[in-house]
Structure formats: structure tokens, C-alpha cells
Write a structure and sequence with these properties.
heterodimer, A: mainly beta, Folate-binding fold, globular, B: alpha+beta, FAD/NAD(P)-binding domain, 5 domains, 7-stranded mixed beta sheet, 6-stranded mixed beta sheet, 27% strand, elongated, binds zinc ion
């Protein structure tokens, strides 16, 4: 059970939150200009990095706001949280084989 | 004679409190402070179970949580519990127990015939024996399950209740042995909030079972003093009978506190167990170590137990586990068990030592005490039916691989064995901390921590009481410091013995007169009956990874989770493969450390508290009307309203007919409602829905279809334009929360520039849908200020005014295909509105109808229900709704609709089905084929999504999704049912009734 620091409410248990997958995937402005492959990539594919990963969470059982989390997906260390639309803060990028 | 094996003095039992209990039908006695195991031993009972596969007689191997054999059925009736380890059951007045794995009784066990057929049970026997011939499985399964059967589940509801509790700690200490107590003292004295937990009823851990001294006094006295000091601290909470069984992310620790299992009278107002969820800043693991059995021929007879278990029974419970003991050991520490047994009056026939040159302080003490030591010897054979009575020993070759010379026979009724110690690294490993193999103790110890935890004492591979105490103290101080406290300097060191259990010699497999697998059984996993020969067979068959060997042989997969077997199995695999253990790796430890009841997981969230129940304001009326209810999401919706003597079928036919012929009324309150406001609301709807919304004017409604980005239908409903930049969206009953989340997500993450405000208003309204040819007449009677004429109030519009004397918003929309009005009032006026409608509608024989009739009516019209006609793989085109997908604008999911797979003409498409026999009602979910074969497999072309008997059509009909179905109208498909029945159907348009929509527009 992760302890997730909501930028608006403070640290709360994971079961108050919903997961939104990879962050900073911008919805294409003109999807009709994308090839089938490019569109499928946007809809279905995520990096799912082992290590430092930028991802989205929503505080469903709290303030209902979306925000970004930088989490080491191997250790579950939460390296930073920041608001939607904000530039990601610099963190040590953890990588693993 | 009662308690014949009870020592005359000593032990942590209360001799003034005699306790009666029943074991296997016999009345026995023990003392307060006994476990079921120690009480049975006091009465000379060693045969306590039968092994899982071979039904061999088994006795106690251990004295604690690691016990693999003594699995008991405790109690009777609704409170009976299966598979409880006798070593973990505290004795109480009136306790009843019986072994789980014996039939008809532990002494005369029919399953023991399995032993004779043991060749049937090699490694992977489940996979091999039962897979072929296929039909044999049923035979084997029946025989084996009835013969083995691990206990019985209670057949009545659980009379107990369970609690959950959340807590925070600066320092959580798991284990209240010497290391844990020292850690808790150090942390507690710093002012940190400490939670100290221990699975035992009293604190002290290994000290309770030993005669070691600390600071010149008995270890138990030191422990009592330590606990007294801790109890006096307000910042320390001590939880006994509490096991830390799970270590999860971010220092989230799960504890199970047992509150009433040890009581003879179960109080009504105390939960049976309490499930603690602790978030700790720092954790100190002080979980001790578990002794390792030796793997030798027929090492499983009752009376063969771990040396430390024998020592515990003598010291802690003052019982004699035997009259004449043989110590069989590979290390120095085990000799203390022999010394303690000897002090208690047990004869020590000999110490059989695998070491060529036994040495060490405890060995010397034993030698000085006159114990005969057979150096470089092995036990090569054991004898005795229900209890060991004789063993054979022989000298080994120098490398320990074989015997060297003839041996001797020793009479004994107890073999106390010790193969060294395995640190209890379960919680560290669960926390994802890494392990390393420590060759000094030939076991795994914590390497580095991933979470904020540290191990201290035996669980860290540290043995020797002085070092254990010092490490506990250091860990407690370090944890408190890391949690932000400043512990004072330690006042001196604890004085205690400094020796660990080494020197030792590691021989994973003890040689015998015959090769492994060719005489007797060398058990590794006692609970799952896995032998060294099984491991060798698995390796010969190519299972080399330890994870594979574990699963194939089932080593370590019993209720004891391999606490005594895992490292021995690794050692044997390592020897066989001639690879160092550290290169093999270790299997993963997973929670829970010991079994946890379902009741504890459920806590109070059971029965009516499992999920909230949502009821509409008209619910009480529906109840009085005798409605049967259906769960839709969390809502209770009237399903149908049976009259006296009516079946569901009768009621639905009557209700459907009434709505078509005169007037019906449906409680439609449960639809989700989202109020949408803001200057960009129209633009927002335009992006979310497939169809256009910019032209919708106030006073009008529009049906919308909502897709996921993958192009699949995810919700539908009618949205009304309440005013400029103000809309009210209706969602499906079950989809309301998901749709709101979906809308919020797009607004916050993709289109933050849109000024749109969403409010869920589902609970603010009550809605009655009146439907049928007389709907307009009724509405006209109920309102004074709404012009209900078709010209003034056309289809797909709404009007605000008063109905039944209260404010109302009336929408002229229809899900039934009839002339229909949905009357929305403020929720608190719902019941009043409903009762007024019913009273005024009497002259039209108004008929309340439930969701089942609603389904019949809408299906006759070919209206879909999201979640019934759709399943997350259905596109608008599949439903024939491509006209609802605008080609002039972008919307969520649009791009996916032109992916090649979406354009495949052979996708499953919505059609109607008419069974050839009009009385055959298809089963929803039935698979459809075009060619019927005598038996499966048959090529499936689709499935039935909705199916009903229609009084209006006078026949059964269905909706279905069929491959390429839109072009197959008029063709036949078949639904093969159970038995030989096959229902033939004709594919039709999905609209069966009033295809022009004259009735709903009229
Ligand atoms: Zn929040």
C-alpha cells in the first residue's frame, strides 16, 4: 500500500487513488493525420519503465484531482509529485537492467 | 496416569489451574499456559497426524509456527477451525481438537495403504498420474481427496466478528525476544512511538525456552523487567498474540491480533481477531530463527523432533518429550538441548554428531556432563510404528558421503535433531530486501534493505545472546534516530553468553545403507511429503531452477510455507547440481507468514456493510407493492411486481402488455446525472460524444453515444440543454461514476483550457417514467402549467413546470418505444409524485413495471443497453449506429473507428433473432453457430445478448451479436444447448416493434 503525497491534500494511502498510466502522453491535436500505427501507439502503448517513471494519478476518494508522480517502479520510491501541465522536476533517473 | 510426562517443577505454566480438554475423543488434562502440543506431550501423545500423500504416522516436529505435522481441527460447530498447528493453540477449558489428516482415526488410518503404492506419488504426481488417461482423474481425485482431506470447513455462518484498525508508529518492532525487547527499550526510551508485536501470549521469545542468563539473572526475569519498563511508557504499545504477517510497500505492515481464540468463553463484545494496518516510519525486524531438520532415512517418525523443540517443551512447558533421547546434530549449539533434557531427567542415550571432531563450549559441557558423543556418525535408519523406538547409527567416511564401517543400534523414544538455524527472513524478503547466503551458518541472511527496515538478532544471522542483545539495542537506537528522535547513550552492555551455535558441519543429506530413493524415505518437506529422492527425480527430469523444483515437487508449498524445508531443499539441489547455493538463488517469500482467516480480511465489511445500498425515494412504495428487487450497481431497482400467484414470467408479460396497451410507470431515478456548466460546455460535449451538440437549443434533448479512445462504446444516454452553457447529462445507472471520472480526466489532463464545471446530481432528483398510449392524458391531469399537446411538447424536448403540485422537469423521451414522459422532481418529492401518479392513473389501470419489463420493451425496439449488447469490444458501427458518428468534427475514439480491424465486414454486429419455435426462449450468453456438429468444437459466429418472451409479438425473440450479421438477415443460426437440444433461429433486424417510431413520436 503506497503512501502517495497528493499535491493538494497531503500524504494519503494508495487505495484513495486511481492510476492513470504514463504521464506526458499528449493527445494528438489532429488524430486523422496519424497513421494507424501511430494512433495505436498513442492509445495502447506505454513505456512501462523499470525504474524512474513519470505517471499520472488521480485522488478519486479525495480532491478528485489529477497530478503527476515520478516513481521508481522497482522500489516504489516516490521521487516527486507535481501538477498537471507542470514541467517535471529534476530527479535522479533510476535505471535497472 | 494423567500428565505422566509432566515434570514436577519448572515451566511457565500455572499448576493451580488444571484444564480439561478433549483430543480425538479422549478427555485429557493440561495446565493454563500449555499449548495444545505441550499438553498432548504431557499426556504422552506423540502420534498427532498422518502425512499428506503417504499417510505416514507423524508427531510434533516443532514447538512453534513452523510445525508442519500437527494440524488440528479445533472446536466444533460454527466456530470450528481447520488446519491449526497444535503448537500455536493455547489450551483452554473445554477445548476440543482432533487431527485433520486421519481417517477413520490417527492410529488406524486407511490412507496408509497409499504408502504401499508410493511409486504412484513421485515428483509432479499431480501432473503425471492424473493427466492420463483423462477419465482416470475423476477416480484418483475422489479417492485422494477423501483420504487426504485437510480438515473441515464450518457449515454454519461465522458467529464471530472481526475488527480492523489503522495505526502509525515511529518504530515498529516485530518480535519480542531478546533482540526485539532490546530494540523496543532503546527506541521507547527516546520518546519514539513504538509498537512492539509478538505472536506469543507472553513476550520473551527464545528466552522463554532457555536457561540462559542476562546480566546475571535468568533471561525470563530480564524479559519480564524489560516489558514492565516498556509498559510504563505511554509512547509504547505492546501487542501480544499478534503476528506481523505481511510487509507491504512504504512500510505498511499487516498484523493479526488474536483476541478470543484462547478463551473458553467467547465474549459477545470482543472481536475474534483484529487486523492492524500499521504505517511505520521505521521497522526493526527481530523475528528470530527456525531450526533446521536433518535429512536422513525415515526422519519423520513420531518422536523425532527439532532439538530446540525438545528443549522448549522441557524448559517452557515442563513436559518430557521422551524418556530416552538421542541427540542428532551437526553443530555445537544443539548440545544445550541435550544438557537441558538431561537436567530434566531425560536419559541421553548418545549424541550422534555429523562433525568429525565435535567441539565448542556446549559440546564440551555435554562431554563434561558425561554425554556419550559419537563423532562423525550418522543415523542410518529409524524404527518404530507409531513412535520411534530404535535407531541405527554408523560412522561415516571422512567426506560424509557414505558410511564407513558397521554401526550400532540404540534404543530411544526421542530423537532431537539439529541441522543448524535458518534466520526468519520472511518479512525482510517480503519488503523486497535482498538476501545473501552466509556460509558461516549455511543459510540466508538479510543483505540490504529496500524499505526503512533493519533486522536484528537471529533473523539477521546473529547468534550468541550477547551479540543478539547488542544488535537489538543498536537497531532500536538507529531506528529511533532515523525517525527523528535522539536516543541517549546506552548505559553499558548487556552481559550474556557470547557463543553462537557453530562450529558446525554442513551435510545436506545424511548417508544411509542404501542410496537415496532405494530404501526408506529422506523427508525434506514433512507437510507435503517431499523427499530427497523426489528432488533428485525433478532434477533428473530437467527441472533445474529452484522455482521449478519447488512447484514440481510442491516443496515449501504447504500451510507451513516451507519454514523447515526450503533451505534443506536448496542444499540438496545444490549438492546434486554441484553448484554453490548462492548461485541457485532462493525462492520468493510472500505474505502471509502464517495463514490469516478470511474473517480478518473482511473485518466489519461484511453482509450489509460489504457495499453501500442505494435506494430511490420511492423504495418504500416498491416494497409495499411486493416488488422483487434487482441489484444494478449499488442500486436496488424494482425488477418486477408479482401479484399473488404470479411467476416472474407472468408478471413481466402483464406489465409489458399494460405499457403497450394503456399505461405503465417505471422508477427511473437511478440513471446517473451530471450537471455540466461553463462557457465551453457545448464544445466539451462535442468532443466527448460521437454526435454533434453545438446546434442543441435550450429546451431540447439529444441522445449521445460515448466512446473510449479505442473506439469502443462505453456509455450512452440523453443530455438536455437546460440553458445557455448549461446541460444535464444522463448516464447509464451503473456507469455514472465511471463517466464522471472519464469526463473529469479529459477536462483536467487533455483540455485544461476548457471552462467546464461538472457536478454529480444523481441523488438530487427522483424520476418516474410514464409510458403508454394514455401517458399524455395522465400528464395533462397532473399538471396545470405545462402544455402537453403534441405540437407544444414534441418528442425529444423537455418542459419545466409543476406536476402533482411540485416543481418538475418533464422530458418527452422514450426508452420503451411508447409515448412516454420522464417526470423529474426534487428527490424529497419523489414518493409524493409517485403516489400521485399511481392514484391518478388508476382509471387507466396504471401498472408499475420493473427493470425486466423495461428490458423487454426496449429490446422490442432494438434499443441497446450498454454492458448487455456491448462488452467493451463493440463499436457504433457494430450496433448499426454509424449515423450517430459525426464526420464533421473530432471526438474521443473517432480515429480508432477507421483502423483496419474496425472496418472488417466480419465483425460481430447487432441483429435480432427469432427462434423457429416461438416458445423457445434463448439463453442470454448462448453461443451461436451456423453449422451444427454432433459435439464441440463448432465454429462460433456470435452470441445472444438479450432474450425475452414478448406478449406484444406473441413469441420469444432475442438480440444477438453475429459475425457479419448486418448482411445475414433472413439466414439461419443455431444455439446448441445442454443435452441434445438445439434452438434454430432466423436472423432479423434488431427492431421488432414500431420500426417507424410512430408511437413514441405520436
Ligand atoms: Zn487530493
Amino acid at each position: 500500500m503506497l503512501l502517495i503525497p497528493c499535491p493538494y491534500c497531503g500524504a494519503r494511502a494508495e487505495n484513495e487513488f486511481g492510476y492513470g498510466g504514463e504521464a506526458h502522453k499528449v493527445r494528438p491535436e489532429t488524430p486523422e493525420n496519424l497513421s494507424d500505427g501511430q494512433w495505436a501507439d498513442y492509445v495502447f502503448m506505454q513505456k512501462n519503465t523499470k525504474g524512474t517513471y513519470h505517471e499520472r494519478w488521480v485522488h478519486s476518494q479525495g480532491c478528485r484531482r489529477w497530478f503527476n508522480v515520478i516513481r521508481d517502479t522497482l522500489t516504489n520510491e516516490i521521487q516527486a509529485v507535481y501538477e498537471m501541465g507542470e514541467t517535471p522536476p529534476e530527479v535522479d533517473t533510476k535505471t535497472y537492467l | 496416569m494423567a500428565q505422566r510426562y509432566r515434570l514436577s517443577k519448572g515451566g511457565r505454566i500455572d499448576r493451580d489451574r488444571l484444564i480439561d480438554f478433549t483430543y480425538d475423543g479422549r478427555k485429557l488434562q493440561g495446565y493454563q499456559g500449555d499449548t495444545l502440543a505441550s499438553a498432548l506431550i504431557a499426556n504422552g501423545r506423540h502420534l498427532v497426524g498422518r502425512s499428506f500423500k503417504y499417510h505416514r504416522p507423524r508427531g510434533f516436529l516443532a514447538a512453534g509456527a513452523e510445525e508442519p505435522n500437527a494440524l488440528m481441527q479445533i472446536g466444533t460447530g460454527a466456530r470450528t477451525v481447520a488446519d491449526v498447528k497444535a503448537t500455536q493453540v493455547e489450551l483452554y477449558q473445554g477445548l476440543t481438537a482432533s487431527p485433520v489428516n486421519a481417517w477413520p482415526s490417527v492410529k488406524y488410518d486407511l490412507g496408509a495403504v497409499n504408502q504401499a503404492f508410493s511409486k504412484l506419488f513421485p515428483s509432479g504426481f499431480y501432473y503425471k498420474t492424473f493427466m492420463w488417461p483423462h477419465s482416470a482423474w475423476h477416480f484418483y481425485e475422489r479417492v485422494i481427496r477423501s483420504a487426504a482431506g485437510l480438515g473441515k470447513a464450518p457449515d454454519k455462518p461465522d458467529p464471530d466478528f472481526y475488527d480492523k484498525r489503522y495505526a502509525h508508529a515511529d518504530v515498529l518492532v516485530a518480535g519480542a525476544g531478546p533482540a526485539g525487547l532490546a530494540a523496543a527499550l532503546a527506541a521507547g526510551r527516546s520518546g519514539a512511538r513504538v509498537i512492539l508485536v509478538d505472536e506469543q501470549p507472553e513476550t520473551g521469545g527464545s528466552l522463554l525456552a532457555s536457561r540462559d542468563e542476562i546480566d546475571g539473572k535468568p533471561g525470563t526475569s530480564w524479559a519480564e523487567q524489560a516489558v514492565a519498563e516498556l509498559r510504563a511508557m505511554d509512547n509504547v504499545r505492546i501487542l501480544t498474540r499478534t503476528i506481523a504477517f505481511g510487509y507491504y510497500d512504504h512500510n505498511w505492515i499487516a498484523l493479526l491480533e488474536s483476541l478470543t481464540d484462547h478463551l473458553a468463553e467467547k465474549p459477545d463484545d470482543v472481536p475474534r481477531q483484529r487486523f492492524w494496518k500499521v504505517r511505520a516510519k521505521q521497522v526493526v525486524l527481530a523475528t528470530g530463527a527456525i531450526e533446521r531438520p536433518l535429512v536422513f532415512r525415515d526422519n519423520d517418525r513420531p518422536g523425532i523432533m527439532l532439538a530446540n523443540a525438545a528443549q522448549s517443551y522441557v524448559n517452557r512447558w515442563a513436559v518430557k518429550p521422551g524418556e530416552t533421547a538421542v541427540l542428532f546434530a551437526n553443530n555445537d549449539g544443539a548440545y544445550q538441548a541435550a544438557l537441558d533434557m538431561k537436567a530434566a531427567g531425560i536419559q541421553i542415550a548418545a549424541a550422534v554428531d555429523l562433525r568429525q571432531d565435535p567441539s565448542g563450549p556446549r559440546t564440551e559441557a555435554a562431554r563434561a556432563a558425561g554425554i556419550d558423543i559419537l563423532a562423525g556418525h550418522a543415523i542410518t535408519e529409524t524404527q518404530g510404528g507409531h513412535r520411534v523406538n530404535r535407531i541405527k547409527v554408523a560412522p561415516m567416511s571422512e567426506d560424509g558421503k557414505q558410511l564407513a564401517g558397521s554401526g550400532q543400534t540404540l534404543e530411544c523414544d526421542l530423537v532431537a535433531m539439529s541441522g543448524g538455524w535458518n534466520p526468519t527472513v520472511h518479512l525482510h524478503s517480503q519488503s523486497r530486501g535482498k538476501l545473501r547466503f552466509d556460509s558461516d551458518i549455511a543459510s540466508f541472511v538479510p543483505d540490504f534493505a529496500v524499505q526503512a527496515e533493519r533486522s536484528a538478532g537471529a533473523c539477521n544471522g546473529t547468534f550468541g545472546l550477547a551479540a543478539v542483545l547488542a544488535e537489538g539495542e543498536t537497531a532500536g537506537r538507529a531506528a529511533a534516530e532515523a525517525a527523528g528522535f535522539s536516543p541517549a547513550a546506552a548505559n553499558g552492555h548487556y552481559k550474556a553468553a557470547s557463543d553462537g551455535f557453530t562450529p558446525a558441519r554442513w551435510l545436506w543429506l545424511t548417508p544411509s545403507t542404501k542410496p537415496v530413493g532405494h530404501g526408506g524415505k529422506h523427508f525434506v518437506d514433512f507437510q507435503n511429503d517431499v523427499t530427497a529422492a523426489d528432488l533428485h527425480l525433478a532434477l533428473r527430469e530437467g527441472y533445474t531452477s529452484v522455482e521449478h523444483v519447488k512447484r514440481y515437487t510442491t516443496t515449501g508449498m504447504g500451510t507451513d510455507q516451507g519454514k523447515t524445508s526450503n533451505v534443506n531443499a536448496l542444499g540438496i539441489v545444490s549438492e546434486y547440481r554441484e553448484l554453490p547455493i548462492e548461485e541457485l538463488g532462493v525462492t520468493t517469500f510472500r505474505p502471509p507468514y502464517t495463514p490469516v482467516t478470511f474473517g480478518a480480511w473482511g473485518g466489519r465489511d461484511v453482509e450489509e456493510f460489504f457495499d453501500p445500498t442505494r435506494k430511490t425515494p420511492m423504495h418504500s412504495w416498491h416494497e409495499r407493492a411486493g416488488a422483487a428487487f434487482e441489484d444494478v450497481g449499488l442500486w436496488k431497482r424494482p425488477w418486477y411486481y408479482p401479484k399473488a400467484g404470479e411467476t416472474m414470467h407472468d408478471a413481466v408479460q402483464r406489465e409489458s402488455k399494460a405499457a403497450r396497451e394503456s399505461l405503465g410507470v417505471l422508477d427511473a431515478t437511478t440513471l446517473g446525472r451530471i450537471d455540466i456548466q461553463g462557457p465551453d460546455s457545448g464544445e466539451f460535449l462535442n468532443r466527448i460524444y460521437t454526435n454533434g451538440w453545438k446546434t442543441l437549443k435550450p429546451g431540447f434533448c439529444r441522445y449521445g453515444l460515448m466512446l473510449g479512445e479505442d473506439g469502443m462504446v462505453r456509455d450512452d444516454g440523453v443530455t438536455a440543454c437546460l440553458g445557455e452553457n448549461h446541460y444535464l447529462m444522463h448516464t447509464t445507472t451503473g456507469g455514472a461514476a465511471d463517466v464522471l471520472a472519464h469526463l473529469e480526466e479529459y477536462l483536467q489532463t487533455e483540455w485544461p483550457e476548457l471552462q467546464v464545471y461538472l457536478t454529480t446530481v444523481t441523488e438530487q432528483y427522483a424520476t418516474a417514467a410514464i409510458a403508454g398510449p394514455n401517458a399524455r392524458k395522465l400528464l395533462a391531469e397532473l399538471t396545470g402549467d405545462i402544455d402537453v399537446s403534441p405540437e407544444a411538447f414534441p418528442f425529444m424536448t423537455f418542459r419545466e413546470g409543476h406536476v402533482a403540485g411540485v416543481w418538475a422537469r418533464v422530458s418527452r423521451i422514450s426508452f420503451s418505444g411508447e409515448l412516454s414522459f420522464e417526470i423529474n422532481v426534487e428527490a424529497h418529492n419523489g414518493l409524493h409524485m409517485w403516489q400521485t401518479i399511481i392514484a391518478a392513473g388508476e382509471k387507466y389501470a396504471i401498472t408499475p413495471y420493473g427493470t425486466e419489463t423495461m428490458h423487454v420493451l426496449r429490446a422490442e425496439k432494438g434499443f441497446i443497453i450498454v454492458g448487455q449488447e456491448t462488452d467493451g469490444t463493440v463499436t457504433p458501427m457494430d450496433l448499426g449506429m454509424e449515423k450517430l458518428c459525426s464526420t464533421k468534427k473530432e471526438f474521443v475514439g473517432r480515429r480508432s473507428l477507421t483502423r483496419p480491424d474496425m472496418l472488417d465486414p466480419n465483425r460481430k454486429q447487432l441483429v435480432g433473432l427469432l427462434p423457429d419455435n416461438p416458445k423457445d426462449i434463448l439463453e442470454e450468453g448462448a453461443q451461436l453457430v451456423e453449422t451444427v456438429r454432433p459435439e464441440p468444437p463448432m465454429a462460433m459466429v456470435g452470441h445472444v445478448s438479450s432474450s425475452y418472451m414478448s406478449p406484444t409479438l406473441g413469441r420469444a425473440f432475442a438480440l444477438a451479436l453475429i459475425k457479419g450479421g448486418q448482411h445475414k438477415h433472413g439466414q439461419k443460426v443455431y444455439a446448441p444447448m445442454t443435452g441434445d437440444k438445439t434452438i434454430a433461429c432466423t436472423i432479423t433486424s434488431p427492431v421488432f416493434f414500431d420500426p417507424e417510431g410512430e408511437r413514441l413520436r405520436g
